[in-house]
């Protein structure tokens, strides 16, 4: 795959600092002049293919790691923050934003945090009523948002935890027999914890009594859900020390955020245990990412499979870089992650033209879409409906739509692309990220005008929208 101009000065500087070499010594090792290295480290010149190869050969650096778009997430978040009318007098160019992300990522994160605090405080002020005197103090950002950003900016991949779970899965031979029996047997043998079915009418999905060493599961939960909850309990007991270390090292502002992160890490371990990295990656490639077959192969739910596919970011053994999201019927994104260039909006609902919304209209089917974002990037988008409910006729059945996809250059790895006209640009539907930051001027599905565009209102003319964009 062709690599565009790469300005990776900070990464090159980190490699050099790790070797404790001067610029002159480092430049000599990779066969360039000291002045060229200085320009690279200050992002004044891109690295050439020869320099990339030299870095890979001399320092065992994965070229894919150097050329990956890991800054896309930060660039997207920073761009969205600066699109707020708060900054209406300042419109940075794309190059300016890239320079900030490449040279001062810490500053970019700080600005994003400040914008989050501003938005939250503004929302609280707008909602105040006559109970003002009893209102709680403002918070910089919610613990949930802080944890969400933690996973987002580590690429939703926790290496040490993933490897630990994979080794345990291999030692237990998970996937080669009855996973339920293997997991319950491991809990009882190693932690004296018994697994039991809950009573009829029980609404709790999982309950653990540490004194009785008893894990009770909802009797109506699907098998993949029950197995996941057992794996979650194993994470609490088997990986507690490692998970506590990761959560503590993240440096969250509140204890609440730390606890929420621990729950997220337990879930991460459970997913990595049931869908061990190498075995799952191999199966995904062999089955060409057929979601239904992967779910059957590993005894997992469709959501578990989609989520796991988006986490295959192990250095030196990466899967296809994908985006994954879970959307509720109101259009709210309740889960989101992207290892691709497509980055989800941090505020507001998802683009109404995106095929994920159609999944609610076609339950039981995986629907496909060829889509193009305003930056010209093209994607294969998959969507399917899933239900989180369990129980009988009167039980609540929350429904969600799952979205999964990749850039079109990887589409050949998917069985879903076999009969699509990938070379026909007219086959790609124009989508955006969120109406509030989308610059498309002729979208009839627009829910609100973009934040930084002035409106023109005509009393004598009406188009698809009740306003025009100057």
Q: What is the end-to-end distance?
A: 38 Å
Reading the helices and strands in chain order gives: HHHHHHHHHHHEEEHHHHHHEEEEEEEEEE
CATH-assigned fold name of the largest domain: Arc Repressor Mutant, subunit A
The gross shape turns out to be globular
Question: What class would the helix/strand composition place it in?
Answer: alpha+beta
Largest sheet: 6 strands, mixed
Mean pLDDT: 84
Rg, please?
A: 24 Å
Number of helices: 17
Q: How many domains would you count in the coordinates?
A: 4
- Count the beta strands: 13
CATH architect. name of the largest domain: Orthogonal Bundle
- Unreliable sequence segments: 126-139
Share in helix = 40-55%
Instruction: Give the DSSP E fraction (strand runs of 2 or more residues).
Output: 5-15%
Structure description:
- Helix content is 42%, strand content 13%.
- The chain is α+β, with helices and mostly antiparallel strands and 470 residues long.
- It folds into four domains: 9-67, lambda repressor-like DNA-binding domains (434 Repressor (Amino-terminal Domain)); 73-115; 159-274, Arc Repressor Mutant, subunit A, CATH 1.10.10; 322-436, Beta-Lactamase.
- The strands form four sheets. It has a six-stranded mixed sheet with strand order 7-6-10-9-8-11, with helices on one face. It has a three-stranded mixed sheet with strand order 1-3-2, with helices on one face. A two-stranded antiparallel ribbon has the order 4-5.
- Helix 6 (71-82) crosses helix 7 and helix 11 (179-191) runs parallel beside helix 12.
- The longest helix is centred in the N-terminal third of the chain and has 23 residues, at 105-127.
- 33% of the residues are buried.
